[in-house]
Amino acid sequence: MTDKWWETLYDDLLAKILLDSTSEKDINDTVSFLQNILKVKEGDRVFDQCCGTGRLSLAMARLGHSVFGVDLIDSYIQSAKSHSILNNSCQFICDDAFNYTTPEPVQAAFNWWTSFGYSASDSVNINMIQRAFDSLEAGGRFALDFMNVPGLYRSFQPQVVTRIKEDEGELVLIRESRMDHTTGMMHKTWTYFLANGKKVEHQSQVRLYTPHQLNMFFVECGFQEVVIYGDIDCSELSLSSPRCIVTGCKPI
Hints:
Elements: H1 6-9, H2 12-19, H3 24-38, E1 45-49, H4 55-62, E2 66-71, H5 74-83, E3 90-94, E4 106-111, H6 122-135, E5 136-146, H7 149-154, E6 159-166, E7 169-180, E8 185-193, E9 199-207, H8 211-221, E10 224-229, E11 244-249
Helix pairs in contact: 3-4
């Protein structure tokens, strides 16, 4: 696996079967949660770190926020720009989120849908949290959406199958996962079966950080008032929570 495996994983197939299939309800519910938890007001500047095709950025812009969206995948950024052509409130930038800081301070930032932990190195992964901190103005807030790792261990699924219907037939994605308990990594094989009979395969990995480790990273980067939620309904984290959402505030 290459050091930057995500450059090949995030292709048009993944966008079609996972990113673009997110329902409007899920997007609206997520944005409502982010507005509430990040305490953003109309006109505030927001940083969407690892924005993908810009679904959340565009939803934020429609609510009156000025959004910086950054992603390393050029085709995703071009797609986001094509959807924002009539909305000057969004700026989409193709850049590496490990290094990117917004050109002006923002009032809020978020990293969503587990776009964190892709390196086997803690110091590399922490860079992404630090870039969010550096992009915020004093008093600004950041939310990181990650896996609920204790719950993942409890109900581990070695295989997940996703199917979508297309005009030319069915597109099938099989995600096979395995744990490496010696390194704290989860490795995945992504196998797509296309309607034309072709098969496409990618590899990925993610570091399995526990909630207390994520809390520690936030504190190390300078955040205060760190709070962890189990879902976008603001519920407390538990073993049955579907995710682990960590929020923090940059000191005034």
